């Protein structure tokens, strides 16, 4: 994969002295050409700051950014072949839909007829071809979002930055627009850099995700890699749900609370560790059952959800565990003794806390 955007050791500090905030701390990452790349993390982790550095609205305190191998670190935003779609859409309410889309093209010095034609083509692309004469104020939120997308795509940028573009939409519209965005990215082949704090949105839409926290990239990988092989406790807890089970590693085996053990990667060093295991990867058995990775436990609560059930239990060392079971599973009573099994491939070994 060819690299479009390359961020090299980027840091950004806002303010000075006592009030200084390090919004980005030595971030290096490459975004591939034509990739749907997502920056995911909780509020304040630095995603928007990274996007604004790529757009050129801020300059880095340290580090550099290249686009197709060219240094753009000090290039003004309007000289970068990069466009941004904001959460607020930032449309002109007194202009028509077509005028909004053509606006940027005219600013770039394109002839009026050419701008009109291009605007119409972009509106067709976002399926708003028939709305070109309407005022923006006469459109729904989802339609306004499409106009903002058409406007951002009109100058054919190499990279489109999207800062939580769907967060103002209700859930149903949001799901529709997720599909729409994927289609647009696919059809245009433009590199998309998408910012969200919604892990499900990131998992379903992205080719690759950079999970961020406290100004750093915690893990970079495909949705599957990040879900099945979280690199640390932050990622395991932020993306989906995880159980954290204390274990002792000895010669390629993890000793579990209650005496059971499972094989782990032979490269894992001896010593204390934490196993991250997804709730759907744990198995329920009767007390005393001899199953792989057996952990004796006591049921604290069981909840039937219709689609599945959640079983809450406590291991012998007090660790709280949640299991996700098929809806057809018979749920044990509160206080019952059970055995929880963990299959060898299902546990990800993390460094002990
Ligand atoms: N212009 C600024 N001046 C001072 N501090 C700032 C400025 N912009 C951002 N910060 C701080 O930098 C940190 C990262 O902010 P940023 O907006 O990048 O986070 P974010 O992950 O996008 O969060 P959110 O999802 O809430 O938008 C925060 O602590 C924020 O308060």
TrEMBL record:
UniProt superkingdom: Bacteria
Nucleotide-binding as UniProt keyword: yes
Gene3D superfamilies: 2.40.50.100, P-loop containing nucleotide triphosphate hydrolases (3.40.50.300)
Keyword Nucleotide-binding in record: yes
Stated name of the protein: Spermidine/putrescine import ATP-binding protein PotA
Protein function: Part of the ABC transporter complex PotABCD involved in spermidine/putrescine import. Responsible for energy coupling to the transport system.
Source species of the chain: Paracoccus pacificus
EC id: 7.6.2.11
């Amino acid at each position: 994969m060819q690299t479009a955007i390359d961020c090299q050791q980027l840091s950004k500090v806002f303010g000075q002295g006592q009030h200084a905030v390090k919004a980005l701390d030595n971030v290096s990452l490459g975004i591939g050409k034509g990739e749907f790349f997502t920056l995911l993390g909780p509020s304040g982790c630095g995603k928007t700051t990274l996007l604004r550095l790529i757009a050129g609205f801020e300059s880095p305190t340290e580090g550099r950014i290249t686009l197709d191998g060219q240094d753009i670190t000090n290039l003004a935003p309007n000289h970068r072949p990069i466009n941004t779609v904001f959460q607020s859409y930032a449309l002109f309410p007194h202009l028509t839909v077509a005028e909004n889309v053509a606006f940027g093209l005219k600013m770039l010095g394109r002839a009026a007829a050419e701008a009109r034609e291009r605007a119409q083509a972009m509106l067709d692309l976002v399926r708003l071809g028939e709305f070109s004469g309407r005022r923006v104020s006469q459109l729904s939120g989802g339609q306004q979002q499409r106009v903002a997308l058409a406007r951002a795509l009109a100058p054919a940028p190499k990279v489109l930055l999207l800062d939580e573009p769907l967060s103002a939409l209700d859930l149903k519209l949001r799901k529709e627009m997720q599909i729409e965005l994927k289609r647009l990215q696919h059809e245009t082949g433009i590199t998309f850099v998408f910012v969200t704090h919604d892990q499900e949105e990131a998992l379903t839409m992205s080719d690759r995700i950079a999970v961020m926290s406290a100004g750093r990239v915690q893990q970079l990988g495909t949705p599957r890699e990040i879900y099945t092989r979280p690199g640390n406790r932050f990622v395991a807890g932020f993306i989906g749900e995880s159980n954290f089970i204390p274990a002792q590693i000895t010669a390629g085996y993890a000793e579990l609370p209650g005496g059971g053990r499972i094989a782990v990667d032979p490269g894992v060093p001896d010593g204390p560790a934490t196993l991250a295991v997804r709730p759907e990867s744990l198995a329920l058995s009767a007390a005393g059952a001899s199953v792989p990775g057996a952990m004796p436990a006591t049921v604290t609560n069981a909840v039937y959800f219709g689609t599945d059930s959640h079983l809450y239990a406590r291991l012998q060392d007090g660790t709280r565990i949640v299991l996700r079971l098929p809806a057809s599973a018979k749920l044990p009573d509160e206080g019952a003794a059970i055995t929880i099994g963990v299959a060898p491939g299902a546990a990800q070994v993390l460094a002990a806390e």
